[in-house]
Amino acid sequence: MLMKIMIIADSWPSLNIELRDLIYRLNRDGKEVICVLPYKKSLTADQIKETGLNFYFINNSNKIKSYLNYIMAYKVIKPDKVILLLNKHTITAGIAALICRVEHMSVIISSLNPLKPTKHIIQKIRNLYYKFIYKKILCQSDIMFFIYKDDYNLLAKWKVACKKRAVVLRSRGVDMNYIKKLPYPKTDLVFMSMPLLCNYGVKCYIEAAKLVRKIHPKVKFLLAGKFVENKKILSEQELDEACESGIIYYIEETNDIRPYLEVCSIFVQPNINQKEGHILEAHAAGRPILASNHPVNRSIMIDGYNGFILPVKEAEKWAAKILLLLDKQKLKTNMGNYSYELCRKWHDRNNIVNIIYDKLT
To answer: Is residue 273 scored above 80 in pLDDT?
Structure first.
């Protein structure tokens, strides 16, 4: 009889990005995988057919229905093992698993942090609720896979005594067969790229570019990604002015960043709340990295080894580090090589899939 594995996520993009390779490997090795998603709108009928996967869709129009439907799903599917991509959107699935006393549940954690400090009583109560439920789910899990180290560090802060069952992955991983190490270009180009640009980050990038180009006027600054205007931080007009004056060059969303990584010599990611962006691809390509002091970035890179971690609202510090790398070619080359080596050690998606697979089976 086939081992039946139930995988729960909050959306198809989330499942596809984080666990696609694992799911297909489990299927290849004779496991029956059922992907549980909260609503059918996340996939069209053609997409469902194209994936070749088994799906079970949950009606989560309200919390009570969500609890009841997840309980029903556990009873109908009767899985041998459950893998839950745990976040605040799938917490009802975790509670239902506790109610059903699911025996073999493992969790993959990308963010435990809706728990931001607040002075509002209602938000404080909500934070306490999330913290209490997270702790219950973690304590009942066979294995906990932490995508980022900052979430793992919360175990000690929350006094959760289950570190022996915890595995730190450090990132979602990158396909190193798709993104390969690239030679350095003959001329310097600084590159910032994220699927959804951070307004504070773009503002910092423009200000840093102005400072650097006063000393190195020939250095180009390239920006790529979707820009959503926030006039309080940075308006479309300000972005247009920076482009028209030649301070930066801007291209909108791109499906393939490899050609841009090939021509860049320094990769920067000044972000406040965006996830990984394209920082992993920059690692795989062998580029030195400047990144903001964000939990995700702290998990992915090593400050002073393969780049620098900097405060996002202090453009002068970003400019100083860019100038340092421009003036010290050997340092720039070494840091780029260290990015690649770090990627092979920590972020190769094949290795991450192997770690999860070996622990689960």
So the answer is: no
